[in-house]
Specification:
It is a single chain. It is built from 17 helices and twelve strands. It is an alpha/beta fold. The protein has two domains: 189 residues, Leucine Dehydrogenase, chain A, domain 1 (Rossmann fold), CATH 3.40.50; 159 residues, NAD(P)-binding Rossmann-like Domain (Rossmann fold). The strands form two sheets. It has a seven-stranded mixed beta sheet, with helices on both faces. It has a five-stranded mixed beta sheet with strand order 1-2-4-3-5. Helix 15 crosses helix 16 and helix 16 packs across helix 17.
């Protein structure tokens, strides 16, 4: 459709130095062409032109002093992309790769992801090129306090509620919240993923990984299939990967790989998750240390340098849970050749556009991240609900609500895909279902 392509070409010109954002926008916008054919009023209202421009971008310097007394300076970002259906909601990422393109791609995807949850939350994202790896607790605290010294002006429980992401776990959220509370003298829900001691929710740590497996399980059930006995390749070894692996194992799957940036471990007998949890959650170590937990005559695992090679391992179900663009076209073709039946994304945009097209042109069931990893932000919204009502739900209550949300997301994107003539195309289903709710809210609120 000419309208969508015109907006996309204009976006590419304006954001030529932002490849990740252009990639995300291309994948989303091209799938929306059937919607504009049915709803010409959206075009008249310039809806796409407004959707692709963030409502607000904040960029700021973050000075702090390291343990040796040297002044360090990082960049901080918050992109408040769309608040049509609720306050901005989206994580903070602390990693050396962070730049405006990555934050914008994540924020743009977050609009539709949050819409799919059914919760009243808009899309936003933020972070910094600060990398907590190798830093002392004191250095991380000093950075977080300096970061919040600027960010606090732009967030609030009815405005923008950040959460964690890569590099931002319970420690970082705690330091960020402590400084926010000190600055505004109010104790309310402005950061989710908080500690249980000060208002956090049970099951939040597990939510993205569990949610990924719940929606995958629903896709399997839809085809009279299950995790039982399936070979499962999981990439990554952070929260999403660990708890996706945990739930997949609980459902009878055989998780045979996990990875970090140095490489991956392969254990034909199934990954011992307790070893991985100790390495990553307690010691903050490298995945290669997994081999140290075995006696020489009992070693069943191997470590392979280079995490990109993980997709050469034959599997029935692939759960990419590491980072963006970890599956390229060649890796997608390898998965297809090896007989993989399901690719369900725990990370944000882990497949390139070329890889996505390989999946869509095959019989692989492909669930994109904006639907498949929505469990984390959905549970963040549940955390907001608990704190606003001064309640604390049990793990089972939160987990049950999470599972229902993920099942409903699957049913919704499956129905929308069929309604628009794209059965089993969950990229189309996710993008259209997420977009329509936001579009109707934007139409109701006028040209703003």
């Amino acid at each position: 459709m000419a309208y969508v392509q015109d907006v996309l070409e204009d976006l590419k010109k304006k954001n030529a130095n932002e490849p990740e954002f252009v990639q995300a926008a291309t994948e989303i916008l091209e799938s929306l062409e059937p919607v504009f054919e049915k709803h010409p009023e959206y075009q008249k209202a310039g809806l796409l032109e407004r959707l692709v421009e963030p409502e607000r971008i904040v960029m700021f310097r973050v000075p702090w002093v390291d343990d040796e007394g040297k002044v360090q300076v990082n960049r901080g970002y918050r992109v408040q992309f769309n608040s049509a259906i609720g306050p901005y909601k989206g994580g903070l990422r602390f990693h050396e790769s962070v730049n405006i393109s990555i934050i914008k791609f994540l924020g743009f995807e977050q609009i539709l992801k949050n819409s799919l949850t059914g919760m009243l939350i808009g899309g936003g994202k933020g972070g910094s090129d600060f990398d907590p790896k190798g830093k002392s607790d004191d250095e991380v605290m000093k950075f977080c306090q300096s970061f919040m010294n600027e960010l606090y002006r732009h967030i609030g429980p009815e405005t923008d509620v950040p959460a964690g992401d890569i590099g931002v776990g319970a420690r970082e959220v705690g330091y960020l919240f402590g400084q926010y509370k000190r600055l505004v003298n109010v104790h309310h829900c402005v950061l989710t993923g908080s500690g249980l001691e000060y208002g956090g929710s049970l099951a939040r740590k597990e939510a993205t990984g569990y949610g990924l497996v719940y929606i995958t399980e629903e896709a399997l059930k839809h085809r009279k299939d299950s995790f039982e006995g399936k070979r499962v390749v999981v990439s990554g070894s952070g929260n999403v990967a660990i708890y996706a692996a945990e739930k997949a194992i609980e459902l009878g799957g055989n998780v045979i790989t996990m990875s970090d940036s140095s490489g991956y471990i392969y254990d034909e007998n199934g990954i011992n998750l307790s070893f991985v949890k100790e390495i990553k959650e307690i010691k903050r170590g490298r995945i290669s240390e997994y081999l140290d937990y075995f006696k020489k005559d009992e070693l069943t695992a191997e470590f392979v340098e280079g995490s990109t090679n993980i997709w050469n391992v034959k599997c029935d179900i692939a759960l990419p849970c590491a980072t963006q663009n970890e599956i390229d076209e060649d890796a997608a073709k390898t998965l297809l050749k090896n007989g993989t039946k399901y690719v369900c994304e725990g990370a944000n945009m882990p497949s390139t556009l070329e890889a996505t097209n390989v999946f869509l042109d095959s019989e692989i069931i492909y669930l994109p991240g904006k639907a498949a990893n929505a469990g984390g932000v959905a549970t963040s919204a549940l955390e907001m609900a608990q704190r606003s009502s001064k309640l604390h739900w049990s793990f089972d209550e939160v987990d049950s609500k999470l599972k229902n949300i993920m099942i409903n997301i699957y049913k919704n994107i499956d129905k929308i895909a069929k309604d628009y003539g794209f059965e089993d195309n969950y990229v189309m289903g996710s993008n259209i279902a997420g977009f329509i709710k936001v579009a109707n809210a934007m139409m109701a609120q006028g040209i703003v």
